[in-house]
Amino acid sequence: MIAYLWKREGGFGVLKRQLWSFQKAMIAVLAVCSGVPIAHADLQRTSFGDWSLRCRDSNYCIAEAHGTASNGEAFRLKVERGGKPEAEVYVTLRPQTPLSEGVMARIEVSGTGENYGFFGKARQIYEGNEMTFGGVADRPLIENLRLGLSARVQIEFGGKDGTLSYDVPLTGLTHALLRMDQEQGRIGKQDAIVAWGGVPADASLELDRLASSTQGAKEKAAPASTQSASAGTALAAPQAPANDLPPPVMPSQDAASAMLIYDVNEIPERVRFLGYSGLNCQLDEAVPGFGAQVFVAGDEETWIVPCGMADANVPYYMARYVASNPDVTTWLEFETPPGLNEPNHALVNNLTYDPQTRQVTGTTYSSPNYDCGVFERHEEMAESGEYELITYLEKTQCDGVTGPPEGWPLSWSIDEMGN
């Protein structure tokens, strides 16, 4: 199995909400409620930058990019997934040079900071001369590809072929994977690749109907019918690694007490301007992926808006907007503990807002395992309407022990240590 080395987070994908997906979702809901069967049509190849996406009738979707290897041969890198709720994600390479079991493989993903390396040996070769990277792709590999700028795959074939490199641009991959989430009905669910949220990945009526209607035309359980390159015998589909982490449910995606907006154009122009001009946010990428929240109290609206794409640490800003007087629109700033000697900040990672207590919390994870980092809690001051820091928790040991950040050790408190 391919082992991976996670170095750091970084990079941004690119995505854009499309109006037709909402219309299609509403038609699907009405049809299911009325008992009318839904006929799925194949999604023809649709281009997203350097990547494209196509889906079959059974909602088996393939995002792929084509390129030329260091020896001049053509190749394809694919991210593919079946339409069922429990379907796994696979990253597959299809070169022209014949693959064999045991060849050394490496993916290096380049982002805005350090690179990420995934290393190991190819254990299985699939029909059509395809290989996966670790069988089922775990989240770190998918997220680094999605948030990276480019990737290089190196295969040590040995002999006359030596080591070949396959360079792949990643522009458009997030677009393609978001569309895959839309086609497979995963928007807002825990098993989505891009637009994941708090809804369980349970089997819907439509997916049940789809599964029963396609019996006899078996959906792929792996990228292709598995076969050994040396023996030619069928192999079982790869199993998900036992230690693979599910994506965390970001608190600001909990829409229990707020309206959740996925279309950036539905955010008031003044609130968008704050993000674009003042904070250099990528709203066209982040809002369709994570959703913006709006809390309405009379004429005043409180907006919680994602500023950029990330896996563990999604930055949000908070803005107050008055519909009758948009000129007074402003973002809120938040304090850090005095000992850190840092200026106030408008961006808070994984920001949550409680309109009842008027408190804002944020969590910044220091590890992709979500087992360490800092947790901040701010409270609105009645007279000024500004926020003051009341507690700051920090867990410095990334020991694999996860739990609510509210239970991390106290680092600073306004009650115990004063202003």
From TrEMBL:
Annotated organism of origin: Roseibium litorale
A Pfam family hit: DUF1176
Region (Disordered): 212-248
Compositional bias per record (Low complexity), positions renumbered to this chain: 222-243
This protein's name: DUF1176 domain-containing protein
InterPro entries: DUF1176 (IPR009560), IalB_sf (IPR038696)
